[in-house]
Amino acid sequence: MKGFSPDSLPVYSTLVDQFAVFDRWFSSIPGPTQPNRLFVYSATSHGSTSHVAKQLALGYPQKTIFDSLHDDGRSFGVYFQNIPTTLFFRNLRRLKYVFNFHPFDSAFKRDAKAGKLPNLAVIEPRYFDFPGFPGNDDHPSHDVADGQKLVKEVYESLRSSPQWNETLLLITYDEHGGFYDHVRTPFVGVPNPDGNTGPAPFFFNFDRLGVRVPTIMVSPWIKKRTGQPPSPLQFFSLSLSLSLSLSL
After folding, report:
1. Topology of the domain covering 6-247
2. What is the pTM of this model?
3. Most buried pick, 43, 48, 150, 196, via CB within 10 A?
């Protein structure tokens, strides 16, 4: 089993040393990217266990955290670079949400500096390469150095923001990428979120989690070198494309 050395990931190494790291944060299902991303925003993939192009194009119908925030009178924003994959949720395509989507390069630093970040700010990385703008989502074969640059940019924008003292930055991944892990995936006490099952022939019951994913939490209220010990209450897995910041 191989991995990146601390020197290869200097931003992560620094954040782990100064804030909190989780070593029992599991992806939501033992499956690929999009079902896990659906889970983080809606606590279910609505029965999806793979990438179904037709369903992604139609959009998934379930209620999301964004809808709940809107219903409660709270704000959210999606700061995207290539395309916002959050649009795989049908509800987010509604006209009422059009001003909740912002180009990352022109809007995120501006909003952070002005202290105008929403209650929930989601950062979507660059998923595809363009000339002069390489992918920075850490997906093979993208250079992890570009992902480190993105995390550094987000962290420094938050650190210098007047909202810093009321901000939590969460950095995690949708799934493990198919790499080996010696830790068994949890399968006891994992509830099916909505009664849906996966398609034939396996009819997955969504009653076990996927492989561990790296997760870091950053906040001025977190003690240095905080770690999450194994716990029977560890089955609250979330999965993000790369990072999320929460400003309360």
Report:
1. Alkaline Phosphatase, subunit A (3.40.720)
2. 0.91
3. 48
